[in-house]
């Protein structure tokens, strides 16, 4: 019995361990997984999806106008007295009626067709708006993820700075204790160490702020223990300027939305101009009457108490004091305005894509310069420290070299982060969704 209890306990612990491991795996995200999680759970995406689904239902509703309409009616009428003719009643004082009507539009001056095409374009525009929202969210997550990587590197650099200054303070204190260095060197080393502690606290706070921001973008609790994995890496530029412009012309959502807006305005013009044309329709009516709820005739209609008729009608509004004409002119001006806005959107896209390429090139050059600066600063610090330990250099030389090294590391980290952010912004500018900033296929 005891062995059985131990077996059950071990099984429970094993299941708990597996569940904990699965949970831990779920809460570990690299850049691509972080973006995909945001695309799945961020409320702004849910709102854009609902809008796109609503536009699809609107398209289906417009499609229904092509088919016939069936209307049924059932009524009861009561009159205060019977109608008599030469002292003989000619109908009852109350009667019931039942009717049905089927109507089918045959030609509406392209109104129904244009309305459906407009609804279809509106659906496509809503889907493009969803793509635009997704692109904005992707860039937002990527920028914050990269800023988190920058913050982590700043924490690491601040910790290294703190360790170097703490070591320098010990050495300076030891030299002072044996009378080899003045008290002011110890005091300055202490000040530098305090400043480094403050810098570390600020760097750690910035890191936690970025973690919290990412949690909110992923629709997670603010204090969720999520492990965001990644490093600041250099990746080749995805495409040259010409290829970027060609890609943007085909894929950038705001450009496509602008073009859809022109198409929709042209359908509005068609709908307005439909009033210039005749309207053709067909209908079929069936009815029956009676003096009982069963609607089965009366003393005045023992037979033929039901009837049907089919008809076709044409109507044409020949004159309306220019209402339709001027409405059509208004729609044409709207189309002209939208075409101008589409051209302006394209110009803004050209500028944005060009500026993204320039930012990438600038950040790439800064990375090379900063890397050389870090190497030089590390060597300068090593030499200053060696000279100080050999008593041929000063404490100020070491502290200055340490400050230069910290500054060089910060510049290098910022250049790396700026480069990755510039790459992310270029993808956003051309309209490509690339959650992990992968260069595969480019």
TrEMBL record:
- Look up the coiled coil feature and give its residue ranges: 148-213
Q: What is this protein called?
A: Transporter
Concerning its family, UniProt says: Belongs to the outer membrane factor (OMF) (TC 1.B.17) family.
Q: Which UniProt keywords apply?
A: Cell outer membrane, Coiled coil, Membrane, Signal, Transmembrane, Transmembrane beta strand, Transport
GO CC annotation: what is one? efflux pump complex
* Keyword Cell membrane (UniProt): no
Q: Name one GO molecular function term.
A: porin activity
Q: Which organism is it from?
A: Desulfovibrio subterraneus
């Amino acid at each position: 019995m005891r062995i059985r209890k131990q077996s059950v306990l071990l099984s429970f612990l094993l299941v708990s361990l597996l569940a904990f491991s699965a949970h831990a795996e779920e809460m570990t995200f690299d850049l691509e997984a972080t973006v995909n999680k945001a695309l799945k759970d961020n409320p702004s995406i849910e709102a854009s999806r609902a809008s796109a689904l609503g536009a699809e239902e609107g398209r289906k509703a417009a499609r229904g106008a092509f088919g016939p309409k069936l209307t049924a009616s059932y009524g009861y009428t009561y009159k205060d007295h019977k109608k008599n003719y030469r002292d003989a009643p000619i109908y009852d004082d109350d009667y019931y009626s039942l009717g049905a009507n089927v109507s089918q539009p045959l030609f509406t001056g392209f109104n129904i067709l244009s309305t459906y095409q407009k609804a279809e374009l509106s659906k496509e525009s809503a889907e493009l708006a969803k793509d635009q929202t997704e692109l904005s969210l992707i860039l937002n997550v990527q920028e914050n993820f990269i800023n988190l990587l920058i913050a982590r590197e700043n924490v690491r650099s601040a910790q290294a700075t703190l360790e170097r200054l703490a070591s320098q303070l010990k050495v300076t204190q030891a030299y002072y204790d044996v009378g080899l260095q003045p008290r002011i060197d110890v005091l300055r080393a202490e000040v530098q160490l305090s400043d480094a502690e403050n810098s570390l606290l600020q760097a750690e706070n910035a890191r936690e702020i970025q973690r919290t921001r990412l949690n909110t973008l992923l629709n997670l609790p603010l204090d969720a223990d999520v492990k965001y994995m990644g490093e600041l890496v250099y990746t080749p530029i995805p495409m040259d300027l010409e290829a970027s412009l060609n890609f943007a012309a085909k894929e950038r959502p705001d450009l496509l939305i602008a073009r859809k807006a022109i198409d929709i305005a042209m359908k509005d013009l068609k709908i307005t101009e439909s009033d210039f044309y005749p309207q053709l329709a067909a209908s079929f009516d069936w009815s029956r009457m009676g003096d009982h709820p069963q609607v089965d005739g009366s003393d005045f209609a023992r037979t033929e108490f039901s009837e049907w008729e089919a008809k076709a009608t044409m109507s044409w509004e020949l004159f309306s004091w220019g209402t339709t004409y001027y409405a059509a002119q208004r729609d044409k001006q709207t189309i002209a305005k939208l075409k101008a806005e589409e051209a302006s959107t394209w110009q803004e896209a050209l500028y944005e894509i060009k500026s993204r390429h320039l930012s990438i090139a600038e950040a790439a050059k800064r990375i090379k310069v900063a890397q050389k600066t870090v190497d030089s600063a590390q060597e300068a610090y090593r030499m200053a420290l060696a000279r100080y330990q050999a008593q041929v250099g000063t404490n100020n030389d070491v502290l200055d070299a340490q400050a230069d090294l910290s500054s060089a590391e910060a510049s290098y980290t910022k250049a790396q982060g700026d480069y990755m952010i510039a790459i992310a912004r270029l993808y956003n500018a051309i309209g490509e969704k690339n959650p992990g900033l992968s260069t595969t296929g480019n």
